[in-house]
Specification:
Strand order of the largest sheet: 4-1-3-2-5
Order of helices and strands: HHHHEHEEHEE
Helix content: 40-55%
Organism: Catagonus wagneri
Mean pLDDT: 80
Distance between the termini: 36 Å
Radius of gyration: 21 Å
Pfam families: Acylphosphatase
Low-confidence stretches: 50-63
Largest sheet: 5 strands, mixed
InterPro entries: Acylphosphatase, Acylphosphatase-like_dom, Acylphosphatase-like_dom_sf, Acylphosphatase_CS
GO molecular function: acylphosphatase activity
Catalytic activity: an acyl phosphate + H2O = a carboxylate + phosphate + H(+)
Amino acid sequence: MLSGPGCVRLWQKMQRLRCALKSFCRRIPASAVLAAVGLLIAFLSTLGCFVPAPGLSMSMAEGDTLISVDYEVFGKVQGVFFRKYTQAEGKKLGLVGWVQNTDEGTVQGRLQGPTSKVRHMQEWLETKGSPKSHIDRASFNNEKVISKLDYSDFQIVK
């Protein structure tokens, strides 16, 4: 979807129109207003404009870039539920990807999602992990911008 200046200007005009019609809308049944808003969103979607959902953060509304990054975590990270906690934290942040144990005693995987969320997860992998883990270090490789996610959820690979 596009989030160019034309879409932003259109969104700003809609906001001004919304304010101008506020008193008028008080006289219209809520169901009619919701139906009109739904039609407007559908129309804007056909134009390729990104319309931020209510409650969506501005960084996401502006189209936070999607990235993919591989990681490996060193230390006491096996036998301490590190993969389970990694999966839970990734899902909590809305990331997709995978995590697995290695034969070398490390944990490795791939993260995909908005840059800000991936950065948060990288910090979590470097500093927190599972309650019983002890992280010596984490390495991150093959970072790249992606146009779409390659995974639909966050999986533990056995």
